[in-house]
Amino acid sequence: MTKKELEHKKHYFKNAASDAKKVISRGNMFMLAIGILLGGAFGAVVNSLANDVIMQAISSIYGGNADLDKWIVHNMKIGKFLAALINFLVVAIFVFVTLFLIYAIKNIHDYRKHKNDPITPEPTPVPTNEELILAELKKMNEQLAKNSSHMVEGK
């Protein structure tokens, strides 16, 4: 393990957050299935939280009408939409926190496992064919420039 890799593993909480974001943005089907299962398993709890606790608190602040079907603003029924939005946000936050914790534990374990490994030097990059050709062309260009300057001086 190189020093750079070990230093990268040291930031396990930062890495856990970026790993969780990568999984969500990458569209990993396995993680999506886990999210759906978690959402279904906790659906009743989250629905109750959204409808019976949060929406009741909001309705008591804005007029006291607890029936979500009767929340109408400019002919739009927003009561059930707000409840569904709160439900979605609670599930999304729960899934993200779960992924964050899983990756944080994984990164902490990896860091502690490799912390005492000997530091190996980073391998020097092998030049590509294009880089080798470019270096050879530069040498030839320098030689041609020297030869042309000697020819000019020789006249």
Automatic annotation (TrEMBL):
Keyword Calcium: no
Gene Ontology cellular component list: membrane
Subcellular location: Membrane
Keyword Chloroplast: no
InterPro entries, A to Z: MSC/AndL, MscL_channel
Keywords annotated in UniProt: Membrane, Transmembrane, Transmembrane helix
Pfam families linked: MscL
MF GO annotations: mechanosensitive monoatomic ion channel activity
Main location: membrane
Membrane topology value: Multi-pass membrane protein
Transmembrane segments: 30-50, 81-105
Name of the protein described by the UniProt record: MscL family protein
